[in-house]
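Example with several molecule types.
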Amino acid sequence: MARFIMTVDLRRCIGCQTCTVACRHANATPPDVQWRKVLDIETGEFPDVRRSFVPTGCMHCGDPPCMHVCPSTATYQRADGIVDINYDLCIGCGYCAVACPYQARYISHKREFAYGDKPTAQEAARFDARRMNVATKCTFCSDRVDVAKEKGLTPGVDPEVTPACVNSCIAGVLAFGDREDANSNVSQLLAENQFFRMHEELGTDPGMYYIFDKK
Amino acid sequence: MKTNIQPGRITPWHQTNWDWRAACNFIGGGSGTGLLFFATLAAGSADSYRIMALIALALVGGGLTCVWLEIGRPLRAINLFFHPQTSWMTREGIVAAPLFLCALAAVWFGGGALVGIAALLGVAFLYCQGRILQASKGIPAWREPKIISLILAAGFAEGAGLAAALAAVLPGVSPRWLAGALLGALILRRLAWMLYFKALEQNGAPRKALDVLRSFGAKFEMIGQLAPEMLVVAGIFYGEVMPYFVVLAGLAAAASGWWLKFTIVARAAYNQGYALPVLPVRGQGEVKPGVKPGWTK
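Resulting structure tokens for the full complex:
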């Protein structure tokens, strides 16, 4: 069985936020919602100062606390490991949001626009009332992944069936693929490099792997 | 509720999904089920039980109504019952239904086995509330396992307090042990609070959450614990002369329990934030020790 994951090569990220913009464009999220966001972490003291740019979002955990607490079964885990939300079942209780240790979930209670009080043409065309007052988050662009089989394409390799953030990354930071396939791009990257997963001690089995050095 | 995005934040920030309405559910649920438990044992007459039980149900119902007002899609509230396999929120809802039915039937009949069953269902409801908080993995102050015993102890202390206060003004003679039970419940709550806070300090928590709890704890242990404990001791020794010592102690025990829960749910709910176990290689640099901003450990 597949387990789709994402690798993030922290050595390469320059914090350009193209992934954030691509995600927002692909998924039509409101202005204050970033399913894919990039942290800018400055550490140390002059002259030994470092900046680390860290793309984050839903980790599509193997053991997702958001799914366990969800009272309505709106949050569910697919057979390929992607954690998704059924907007028609969600009651917007916010329990998943307080259960997620990655701050990856959003509940929009008011329709908001990027510029002023009126929607842009894109916002008007892409507005989805089902996503109001319910929990939303990164889906690993599951709508793209879903058509991979019928088109005979491979997620993570063929852009048409790969998450928008991965396609857009200008520095080759993000990669997407099947962790269970030893020959996949992500398995190869993890075999060749050292990596960690955020808040791994919480036992969530997160599906975002942060590469920090070669082996 | 506001949208919980704060771009660029690294250190834990206060969650915005559950506000005072969620706190009211824990306040009403704890006091209500605690009162229902002690009403079973302490009501001086069938009529006293009826009044105590109805107040208890009003508290539980009020708390649940607050939560209903908080959810984004209140008309879909029935979906709450869909996930008993793992969700403690579903389990709380499932227990609430027979709790209300049994307690109302006990009120109608004024006694019998239903009184005991309603009390036990109340304890189950209270336990679910503790587990709801503990399952919130994103909020370090809630996921500490000792919060379960704290929520239970707080519910019993509030319930004993309200029962003691109500027993003094309702018809019938309330048992003499009620004051002792209130003192015992207060001591248990003090112990549960100390163990909970100590565990948070030892295991590490968001600095701001600990600041809130530390500042609260100093006041709580004096005003919320010591004061009602002294009042109830005075009531035990001088109850014949000054019967209102126990009433005051009971009201203080309930009010301080509400203060405790409001603080934990609505003020100390800082999220996990972000952390890097190591800093990545950049350019010619080397791997460096990681960072966990905003945490005590």
